[in-house]
Amino acid sequence: MSNKEKRALTDAQVHELAGDLIGTCDDIDECLPEGITFDKLTHVDFSLLDDEVMRCEVCGWWVESGLIDDEGKCDECAEPDDE
Asked: Which residue of 20, 24, 25, 62 pairs with 31 in a disulfide if CB–CB is 3.0 to 4.6 A?
């Protein structure tokens, strides 16, 4: 009776992928576990990955999701507040 979408990645694989991406500019497909291709990832996989890491829209580096502002910028690329 489950309507859950089949996922390409386990929770552990999502966590490992996030760890592999942080601090890099790598594309997701460069870091996927063996046997898993980018086109097999589901929106659930991407959502879980977004909970852990996001890519800065300015510099392209992967950082922890909490370090991305509402404009998609990492702390390093965000304009500093007026001091």
From this structure: 20
